[in-house]
Amino acid sequence: MTRTWQISDVTEAARARIATARLAAAYGVPPVERARLTASLGAQLRSCLTKGGTWRLTLETGTASRAGARAGEEVLHAVVTPSPEAAAAGQPPWRVTVPCPEAVADVGVGAVADDPAELAQALLGADEDTTLVLERLAEQEGLVDFHREELQQTNQGVVALHAELDAAGRAQREAFAAERKARTEAENARRRLTFLADASAVLTASLDHHEIVRRLPELLVPEYAASVDVWLFDQDGDRPGPAHAAAAVVAARTGRPQYAAAHPGGLPGVDDLPPSALAPDRPLLCIPLPTRQAPLGVVTLSPPGERWDPDDAVMLVELTRRASIAIDHAQRYQHNRDIAETLQRALLTELPAPPGLTLAARYLPATHGLNIGGDWYDAFRQPDGGVIAVVGDVTGHGLRAAVMMSQLRTALRAYAVDGGSPGQLLTRLHTFLHHLQPDLFATAVIARFHPDDPTVTWAAAGHPPPVLRTPDGGVRTLDAKPGAMLGIPLRQEIADHTVPMAPGSTLALYTDGLVERRARGIDPGIARLADALGSFGPAELDADLEGSADGILRPMLSDSERDDDVCLLLCHLSGTD
Known about the structure:
Layout: E1 2-7, H1 10-26, H2 31-51, E2 55-63, E3 74-81, H3 84-88, E4 94-99, H4 116-124, H5 128-204, H6 209-220, E5 227-232, H7 246-254, E6 258-260, E7 271-273, E8 284-289, E9 297-302, H8 310-347, E10 357-364, E11 375-381, E12 387-394, H9 399-417, H10 422-436, E13 442-450, E14 453-461, E15 467-469, E16 475-477, E17 497-500, E18 506-510, H11 512-515, H12 523-534, H13 538-543, H14 545-557, E19 566-573
Parallel strand pairs: 6-7
Antiparallel strand pairs: 1-2, 2-3, 3-4, 5-9, 6-8, 8-9, 10-19, 11-12, 12-13, 13-14, 14-17, 15-16, 15-18, 18-19
Helix pairs in contact: 1-2, 1-4, 2-5, 5-6, 5-8, 6-8, 8-9, 9-10, 12-14
């Protein structure tokens, strides 16, 4: 469809505009596009009338070919061709295209009013469609402005909300990071304290300083150190030789931990030194083993990684201090133990060999703790030809007990020179100990043999009873009522007891270390001793009393931890031919 209008005055322009609006409505052009079309056309026609001349308006329908339109879409083309004068002046044609959703074969324009006033009003103003559309556009623009403002406010709120959420997220992440850091630090501190407590328990469990030195590297490698070297000074105080790192020498001389590396370690309480010539490629931490007087030695460590954490270094210094205390205690213990054992053995007498009586004694010091020095045995002759055999036990242990034991032994020998029965001798020892050492006590059992008397007289003061084996192999415990312990604040007269002792009999005197076991009491141990003594034949005891003593100790001590001294004195009357 093609329509053409020649326009040279206002009336023709108004009729052409009204016809265009009606055709656009007939072709289904949307109201908004129709309003825009008529408004643009009206403005163009007014401009043409101002310039003068005859203009031609052409409307035609067809398929879209312009840019921006959908292919195959029906459109309405409007073209205003300038007058020859305008065309000569370079005025280009005016064109506009709008979509036509409802294409029709042909439509009529209908009658257009001839009243010039109405036509002019239609050209200068807006027809009814344009007015309605413009009103709707105004309303829609108002709504659009309202929604735009509301959207802007919403966007501002969303932006503010996002900002608050970002800030809250950052604060929460920082709080979580701080919490994780605090938890990690707490876990590391707990781990170090637990390790320090466990390692201290391991180091202090032994009283052998060589064992402590051996265990220290086992505790630290590989978690806290790649290597550990423990260097103990000699007892005379000699200091390191050329085989030790210079940092170890400085630590020994100053008593302060030293860190030797290419870069400062920044470890608390540790001095920095240049790298060691013995190990220039790895850091060394040299920590002295402190005591009240002077360091015992130096512990040299290399780190498990590139360097130590400062808190780990503090823990290592503290562990070394505790190891030093344990080593010092172990060395002191061993020193005191050696002195007590030496004194104890020096005071144990050489057994006499009277006619018809064979003696065999065993003394075994405790293997655990300082429990040596209290047990003792002795045997000697009296002026009348009798033989005194005694086994005793001083309460307490160590040097003091050993010294007290030597005093009791000397006093007993002195009292026995004047004669007296076992009960009388123990009574005098009781008075002597009570006045000499009121806070020390002792137990003892004394047996007196005489070659002219077929009996044995014995007395005990708080001591385990003797065990007697008769020639026929029978064994019994001499459990007559003993006296109280020696030295207690009690006046007492200790009684004598006499039993027959035929040739071939054996009397066993002993201390509680041989028969007493923890949680089981002493009676089961005495019964075991009786069984062991009864297991020998008379010929064995006559032929080898020393071997018999060993044969008693082996089964008796097989279940013992040897945490106390052990004394055994066998007195055997030789059998008749």
